[in-house]
Amino acid sequence: MKITLLGCGGSAGVPMVGGDDGAGVWGQCDPSEPRNIRSRSSIVIEGDDGRRLLVDTGPDLRSQLLSARISAVHGVFYTHPHSDHVAGLDELRAINRVIDAPLPIAANAETMAELQSRFAYVFQPWNGEGFYRPVVEPQIVAERQFVAMCGLGFSVLGQRHGRIRSLGLRCGDFAYSTDVDFFDDGTLDALANLDTWVVGCFQHDPHPAHAWIDLVLEWRARIRPRRMVLTHMGPDMDYRTLCDELPEGVEPGFDGMVLESH
């Protein structure tokens, strides 16, 4: 199983729009380190048969797929309805054209309702005469459910993300948990015996809706994955500084990073 980190930045990316010269706000990130350039968080999981599951459709989706040289995906799993995870849904029209079929999408009931409100046209029945808009086939999923999609089987993990619920997933010995600040014991138990865990970690200091470094290290001490990769990182998280400070087995991700797991 191959996992590509399309993006590993927070909702505003790095650099954030702004700056006295218009070149962006980098915070503590060194502009000369290319791995500090972060688009909005998303991954692709590719199974042994070559089919791919996309997790979230952020506003950078088109450029992410081109950069990663990924021409097609075969389904989408949504973690939650915030704009940095759904606003690129219109880019799925190109995927429809490549696979010449409607695209299955999975989300919990709350996220699917938000997608239907914001993108009602993509849920209209397809007439089979080409793709002039994205066309999707919705599937409602729930926490602790096992889902078969794109030739992959994965468990849906429940998470707290500030005032809302978000979803993670576990596929084999790999798990993805972005936009989270709390796991209940059931989810922590479901994350046991991982090989690779990609987990959101927005900054160094505590945050009301996102995990921070000390918190993810507490989770690691309980779960004990072989490898932990941080994602959804803000401008406080300089790549080289993190490489120097984090313990062995924990590392910052970067856009385009490729992982292998079982």
Automatic annotation (TrEMBL):
* Pfam families, per the entry: Lactamase_B_2 (PF12706)
> What sequence ranges are listed for the domain Metallo-beta-lactamase?
39-210
* Top-rank taxon: Bacteria
Identify the InterPro entries for this entry.
Answer: Metallo-B-lactamas (IPR001279), RibonucZ/Hydroxyglut_hydro (IPR036866)
What is the protein's name according to its record? MBL fold metallo-hydrolase
